[in-house]
Amino acid sequence: MKATYLLLARLPEGRADAFDAYENAVLPLLAEHQGSLERRLRGRDDRVEAHVESFPSDAHFTAYRNDPPRARLAPLLDASGAEVELFAVRDVPDARR
User: Is 56 domain-assigned?
Assistant: First the structure.
């Protein structure tokens, strides 16, 4: 069963570049776990970023989150000062269709 997650990162003012350094290093690891970044959105003021990520299963997502190379990149995330929230989500049918 497909597993979809919403990641919401709140970025301190002026720290978007530091967060980008982390993201540029960690996002390529998604493919190693059959994950995909479906959408990446950033607020116009660079203070919030949202990702919609999908994996074939929760187990694939867990493997990605526990990946040792990803863990070694954690200091980049810490340096960005980002506060990250993670939500398991599902599609909601659009009643207008």
Answer: yes
Look up the pTM and report it.
Answer: 0.90
CB 40 within 8 A of CB 49: yes
Residue 10 lies in a domain: yes
- The order of strands in the sheet holding 36-42 is 36-42, 48-55, 3-10, 83-89
Q: Domain of 76?
A: 3-89
3-state helix, strand, coil in the chain (%, to 5): 40, 30, 30
**Count of structural domains, the chain:** 1
pLDDT tens-place string over residues 17-37: 999 999 999 999 999 999 999
**94 inside domain:** no
pLDDT of residue 27: 96
